[in-house]
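Subject: sequence -> structure tokens, single chain

Hey, anyone have a minute? Need the predicted structure for the following. Not urgent.
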Amino acid sequence: MSVYKIKDNNGNDYIIKDISSFYQHIIEYHSSGTSLHEENGHYFTVNDVFRSEVKKLYQDNS
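Reply:
Had a minute. Here:
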């Protein structure tokens, strides 16, 4: 099982336990523009760059 790690808004590492559900959530609820995603006390600014990073992690998992 691969480890998927991204930085939150504070520069802290966050381990994504289920890249598929994380990616699906981002696509469903944060598909365009800029928004804020909170997960387990970590905050992420979701924009095109963030979506691209998560998509790459997801595709690397497939």
